[in-house]
Amino acid sequence: MTAQRRSLLLITIVLLFAAFFWLFPFAWSVIASFKSDSEFYVNIWRLPERAVWQNYTNAFSGLDYPLTIGNTLYVAAASALLQCVTGALAAFAFARMRFPGRDLLFTLFLATLMIPGTVTLTSSFLILARFNWIDTYAALIVPHAASGFAIFLLRQFFMTIPTELEEAAHLDGAGRLRFLWSIVLPLSKPALTTVFVFIFISTYNAFLWPLVVTSSERLRVIQIALSIFSDSIDGGSTAGGQLLAASVLTMLPTIILFMIFQNAFIRGITRTGLK
User: Fold this and answer.
1) Is residue 251 classed exposed, middle or buried when 0-12, 13-18 and 19+ CB atoms within 10 A define those classes?
2) In this structure, are residues 29 and 247 in contact, taking their beta carbons and an 8 Å threshold?
């Protein structure tokens, strides 16, 4: 066996071990979610003798799944789409236009990534209260309509587009917005997909912000519903199968999303310098 093949074999083995340790908790959660309560605590490593589908029925109704998952998907998708729009416009200005203070302003945008969300929680809540947006969809979506992360990632991608394309577009009479819409954005689908997936999952997993700005059941998102469901079944101490079933239902949309967009997501990551 040549040295190159030995290196390839070693890398393959390491990646297989890494994949196993990464996938095992999820696989175990799915298997254990079909166990009865007594079977779950007798031996958590044993396969279920009989699949208890009632765990998923109870979790589905306890989470009020159609309402909460609908709210969560709506909020996450709207926030991700808005960040794609605002991020693309700002990133295009930082990547392709020259104006005084451009680099300083971009540095300030990057600096916002280092500010924890809890630091601005009170001020953001007070601003939304002045607009009478508390306990509305606007409170869940608008504060996430822009971010330094989306601007940074899209800017890095836009900078890889050859300047010759821009010069040719200008010679044909295209303005900056036409160049952005007709050339830059079609070429940037992997980067836009990456931004969408990142922001979607981040908003989907949000717990503290929805807990602060909403109180009515009609606006309840899946993460809050999961917490309430966990507290409602005997303090969450004697219904391990139901809790795992609820967790699997909660994870399912993000897994499906990643499986659909994984190829574009990987291309977007590699071409923006975030390898």
Assistant:
1) middle
2) yes
